[in-house]
């Protein structure tokens, strides 16, 4: 792996970007994402990857050569080619390093500006399976991004999105039990404590920056939620799982996450690519249960499908609109 270019200033005009969770070097999955992206977000030129990348740089260029993606910024995770990456980052401290035609590896931490918004990237995470891995070869050392972020003044700018590979330990989107979590894989106590400490450091950044949106990978779970005070969290799934790809609007910070079925359908598993009208019709059929009775999708269903294909509205927004359209308000005379 070689440094082809390095920069300490990244400012992009993009209004929509693709965001991906863990890939673990899965080239086949990357190909499927690359085939679906031109239909899901033809205007997206930038991809933000949230870690556990481990992709061959030259292969990435080939995989995305037929798309509009011309730059991928990688927030490095805990499972990477650290024996090759570490020397590059140490040679260019605090700078992003380009290692292929489109792949940039971000320092830890990094500040970007995208669509006029400030984006903070933190990399690395404590591995609960760290004792079974070779330190330095594919396991990141547990250095504190929080201290470096504070030293560089990144913690003094609230708001904006925040790309990360870990989730804050005090995220309150769902109630938490006071009981110790189960440990079905039998990880050692020291590894679990290191993971807890790692998440605690992220919480310090979360409290200092107070981002409008935090996006993270690492946990292999596609989900999302909102804290009691209105901050939003987007958790992206791993390669081959639900919620690995998101399309983020940089103005509204709304993220659309196409389902696994839609992603595979648009990629079409290498078959002939369908037109936009064909894709919209098939999506409309999926949104209109009447098709099971041989009925055509309603004009509303077709419009909903086109909005989803074009990224105008997320699936959650469409479903809420459908719910409101079909919910009858009781009259004053009704009990």
Explain what the structure shows.
The chain has 2 domains: 5-262, 4-Layer Sandwich (Purple Acid Phosphatase, chain A, domain 2); 274-325, no CATH class. The protein has 9 helices and 15 strands. The chain has helices at residues 27-40, 57-63, 82-91, 145-151, 189-209, 260-267, 276-287, 299-310, 315-325; strands at 5-7, 11-12, 16-20, 46-49, 71-74, 96-98, 103-105, 110-114, 117-122, 161-164, 213-216, 223-226, 232-235, 245-249, 255-256. The chain has an 8-stranded mixed β-sheet. A 7-stranded mixed β-sheet has the order 2-8-9-10-11-13-12, with no helix packed on it. β12 (223-226) and β13 form a beta hairpin. The termini are far apart.
Structural class computed from helices and strand pairing? alpha/beta
Radius of gyration: 21 Å
Assign a percent range to the helix content.
25-40%
Biggest sheet details: 8 strands, mixed
| Total strand segments | 15
Quickly count the helices. 9
N- and C-termini, Cα separation: 71 Å
